[in-house]
Amino acid sequence: MTSRWLILADDLTGAADCAIAFARRGLTASVGWQGVEAGWETDVLAIDADSRRLPPGEAGARHAALLRARHRPGAGLIKKIDSTLRGQPAAELAATLAALREAGRPSLAILAPAFPATGRTTVSGRVHLDGAPLEGTPLWARDHSYPSAHLAEVLGTAGLSARHLPLDLLRAGDAALAAALRDALAAGFDAVVADAVLPGDLDALARASLPLAEQALWVGSGGIAAALAAALPGGAPDSLPARPAPRGGALVVVGSVAEASRLAARRAEEEGAAAFDVPPALLRAGPADPRWAPLSEGIAVTLAAGRDALVRIAAEPDADLAGGAALAEALASLLAPAARQMGALFATGGETACALLGHLGVTGIRLLEEIEPGVPLGVTQGALEVPVMTKAGAFGDAGTILRSLARLRDPGPARPHALPQESAP
Fold first, then answer.
1. For 395-422, how does the pLDDT look when each residue is reduced to its tens digit (9 = 90+)?
2. Are 371 and 417 in contact (CB under 8 A)?
3. Which of 19, 136, 208, 354 could disulfide-link 46, Cβ–Cβ 3.0 to 4.6 Å?
4. CB contact set of 65 (below 8 Å; sequence gap of 6+)
5. Measuring CA to CA, which residue among 222, 225, 267, 193 is closest to residue 395?
6. What is the bridge-based pairing of β-strands 76-80 and 5-9?
7. What CA–CA distances, in Å, run from 30 to 5, 47, 85, 351, 377?
């Protein structure tokens, strides 16, 4: 079985929370991003294509180009998608499959977006969030790309054919599941859509599909990445590489509008973090706004004094999500002078984290451990070396930021993250 993996993701937090699964198993793992040269210096290379907000054609073309430039014979391939189907997962997968077939590699996409540890499951081929159909949630109402969260229909928008793997097949034993995968490949399907409610469902899928690594790619989120890593030979290391201790205040940047991130930010403020709310109008105006320089300086002074600085884009009604990339870039410009005083970074929202790190001359993140599901910890590479934690906006709960900062300052050695235990559906 391969020990080298390429992960293509549509945002930074997704790239990191997939790659960290392999780091937990003792493989070296790094994250890079679009426009930054990266090679095979590590066992696992995850690349943020920064395609979440691109139109379908551009998003697909970017993934195909990265695949042609970075994939190597014998390496496993994961196409990371958002577990709630934001962005352009169907177009990106179609372009990735076309590029593989151009290279003479027949490929079956194994689509399994479930991430049970974070409440994402797949039932009857449809994505659910915390037990409810995704289409009925506020997250879907705020941001979605497709008419429904039925995965075969989603793939159909890009002209891809799919066969459904129901939950009873996932639990029928590895031999039956492996046979179903081989049948789908022989029948010429572009993809299979796998149900999953428990981590064990994804574990079964990983065991059955790994022997097809030369003919398959996996499409999903951190859940399938963790299952694949766990199915590889060998076990988790007793300890993980050392990480630098923070030498000052932590910069906590909340660029996500997701309720989970807002609650966590509020809790961190209640426990003593200095809060700075940044109006979107200020970011749109730029440095010419008289509020810009004093705000940037205030954040820098807070960090230099060793205090945590919590920076969040102020919520606004009827926000234009299509302008999120521009706001993230403007926020990064505002924070760049102050960030040189930080001892560590905690960032929610992939666009925000990537933009800020790019401004600081960071070319990648070497991953070390996972604080909790969906919250990896690493060390920046390039012009600046500081501990960094990233989190997708909708992951976690009200205590996630506080627990993460406490672990960051724990003087003990890094330790493998304990995965949640399975529970009944």
1. 788 899 999 999 888 755 555 444 333 3
2. yes
3. 19
4. none
5. 222
6. parallel
7. 11, 9, 24, 18, 11
Query: How far apart (Å, rounded) are the C-alpha atoms in residues 51 and 88?
Result: 8
Helix (H) or strand (E) holding 61: helix 56-70
Q: Can you state the angle between helices 12-23 and 222-231, rounded to 10 degrees?
A: 20
Under-70 pLDDT residues of the chain: 1-2, 36-40, 235-246, 316-323, 411-425
> Do 217 and 110 meet the contact criterion of CB atoms below 8 Å apart?
yes
User: Which architecture characterizes domain 250-408 according to CATH?
Assistant: 3-Layer(aba) Sandwich (3.40)
CATH number for the domain whose boundaries are 5-231: 3.40.50.10840
- Smallest CA-to-CA distance from 158 within 208, 204, 96, 207 is with 96
Residue type at position 315: A
250: three-class secondary structure by DSSP: strand
Q: Vertex 86, ends 365 and 64: CA angle to 5°?
A: 65
Q: How confident is the model over 76-89, as pLDDT tens digits?
A: 999 999 999 999 99
